[in-house]
Every structure is written in C-alpha cells, then in structure tokens.
Fold this protein.
Amino acid sequence: MNGAAYQFGQKVGSLSRVARKAAEYLTALLFCTLFFAFVSQIFMRYALNSPLNWSEELSIICYMWIVFVACSFTLRDGQHVIFTIVVQSLPQRARTVLALVSSLVIVVMLLRVSYGIFDYITFMKVEKTPALFLRKDYVFSIFIVFIAMLVLRCLWTAFTAVLELFCQKTHEALVAGFDETAGFVNSEPEEAAP
C-alpha cells in the first residue's frame, strides 16, 4: 500500500508541478502585458496628449487574472496569510482534525455558492467590456477556475488529514511522493524538540 500511495503522491505532485509552471508562465505573460498597457497609457497621455481608451481596461483584466491564477496554482500551502497562534498551540492530532474539518467546511461552502457564481458568470456572456469588447463571461471565467482549484486543494488537504489520522505510514508515503515530485522540499522549518 505504501508503494501505491507513494506513486499516487508522485502523480499528483507532477500534475501540481506542471500546473504551477504553466501558471507561472501565464502570470509572467500577463504581468508583461499589464506593464506594456500601463506604460503605453502614460506615454500616450503625457507625451503625445492622446490617452488610450483600452489600456486601463486591459490592465484591470490582467491584474484580476494574475491574482486568481497565482492564488489558484502558484501559492503553496502555508504561503498565504494565516494566523497560527491558536493552531500552533494545539497538539498535532488536534491540528490535523482542525485541518480536516476546516477543509470540509470550505468545500461545502464553495460548492453551495458555486452554482450561483457559475450561473451569473455564464449570464454575463450577453455583455462586453466597454473598450476591448471582450465577452464578460470570458473575462470572469478565471473565478470559476479559482473556485475549482480551491475545492481541489481543500479536498487534498482533507484526504491527507484523514490518512494522517488513520494510516500514518500511507500518509508519509503519499506526502513524500508528492513533495518529491512537486518540487517541495521541507517548506516549513523543522521544530526543535523540547
């Protein structure tokens, strides 16, 4: 079982690594586009006294996509803002139970609201952006991807928490396979034993 868990962890880890690399390239491209639009607007407005009507809109769309792509794919667990003062004071088993419960609560809440969000975004296909004439459902579609990735990440956290609670060896093999393939090497420093 441990070998199968390790291999499964490797497969999920390699998918995570590919998705993260693609997202890094996409966010870099979007940031270059945002920078080009921003600098073009400054040059046209102040040097040629002829402001562009599309640059601000493109900058806003690029910024929105950068934020949601980065949050969906490039942030690792523990890299976002968290308050650990209470969680770190708990024993390891209680932390694991808390991770399991909080992940499942987030999944339930996201799934509960996802239909309404999806329905609204698909409804937006009737509208276009004012300057670039892009369909708004395409512009806001990244939010659906963000919610889907957040659900998947929470399900992964819940799955690993269940394994940690009930099958420690399988959990260790799974996490080792994932960390090795995804490129994670002890992202958190080891705690010193008292």
In short: The two ends are 33 Å apart (CA to CA). Confidence is low (pLDDT under 50) at residues 185-194.
